Amino acid sequence: MANLKHTLKTNLREVYARVLFHTGLHAVVDRLMPRRMTILFGHCVDQAECNGFLPADMKIRADNLDRVLGWFGKRYSLDSIAGGHDKLAAGSDGKSVVALSFDDGYRDNRTALLPILQRHGASATIFLESRPLDEGVVNWSHKYHWVIAQPAAGDAPTEMFVRRYLTLSEDEAALEGLRRALEEDAGEDRLRYQAKRVMKYEADPVDRDRVIDQIFAGAGGDQAALCASLYMSWDDARALAAAGIELGGHTVNHVILSRLDREGARAEIDGCRASLARELGGGGTRTFAYPFGRRWDYNDETSAVTREVGFDLAVNTHAGTNGPGTDRMQLRRLPVDDTTPMHLLVAEACGGFDLLRRFGVDLSE
Ligand SMILES: [Zn+2]
């Protein structure tokens, strides 16, 4: 029954979005609905030499992003998150805002994303994880993706990775979760997803980082080289800021903030803020993105600390639009990658799903 309901909802959402998009009704709904900011988020513009080994859902091809910005640029105001929020808060009339955001601080954001933004006369917000820029250290998930993308990892690279992890780890929770994932025997893609989930949510972070460092080194990984090719430098960040791009905070180590106590969360959030202020100067940064961004990845205390250290806007990764009354420490965002259909982005941005919700019908997510 739950499955049937889900299928029905997905199909209704598709049909509704296609009708809005292809008939031009989106423009009618857009005029009818209150002014809003729709925030899109991605990670990388596809550029093999920097991010070739990252999974497809973290990348968007330049031509696809160009198409998205071209479409929205004609009908909406393209801005950064802080810029767009100020426009909404000012209450003046005008077009609704579409704000593009990119998370983590990858090098392609300067080399590939910036030229695209400049062609469209658009700003955007880029959220930086500060440790890669400060120390040349990348978090565990990139070492994981790098190892399983190596040609030497064979045709079942994730299985090979997981079996190696099982021999090195002393963490019962991780061992049990990974054994369960292997037993499922549901193919490489499913295992890749499940192994990542176990390492993210079930594993002890200290044991995990130690084990992955060992596997990474054993596969010939060079952390400094990986970091230099994958992440931007502070010079890149300054060049982006000089070009009018907003830079925001995303913690020091890309951790799950809801798992930390108040002081731990403060160190991650304020540490990142301090690095940004030191390197970029000026009034510092206003906008923060919770790593992973789901409601279970942060909590009320996280939001309070984020505010206390000086951020006045924060974004999650739940779909929806934002109005002047939306909780400014929980602004919503829509993912955009090569598989995102334009009609779904448009149906959301024009206020199409907000309109249905007024009639008690929730077709979003
Ligand atoms: Zn992130």
Automatic annotation (TrEMBL):
InterPro entries: Glyco_hydro/deAcase_b/a-brl, NODB_dom, Polysacch_Deacetylase. PROSITE patterns: NODB (PS51677). This is Polysaccharide deacetylase. Gene3D superfamilies: Glycoside hydrolase/deacetylase (3.20.20.370). PANTHER family: POLY-BETA-1,6-N-ACETYL-D-GLUCOSAMINE N-DEACETYLASE, PTHR34216. It comes from the Bacteria. It comes from Engelhardtia mirabilis. GO terms for biological process: carbohydrate metabolic process.
